[in-house]
Design brief:
single chain, 72 residues, mainly alpha, 0% strand, flat
Length: 72
Amino acid sequence: MFVFPKGLVHFQYNAGTSYAIALSAFGSASAGTVSLPGTLFATGIDNAVLAKSFKTDVGVIQKLKAGLAVKP
């Protein structure tokens, strides 16, 4: 069993060779949503960490961050 705090970005990966079954439940009727682009790319997460996580290079991460930057 895993418990994820509200708003925490998470994922699951089946590293096995057979099918996996997942059951999820929310702690309230109003669980809400989180914008992943803003949560991931508009924060202080290091570019190298994001690049490794998404199996890309730092240049792509910088382009994504630039596209999500707040326009003055």
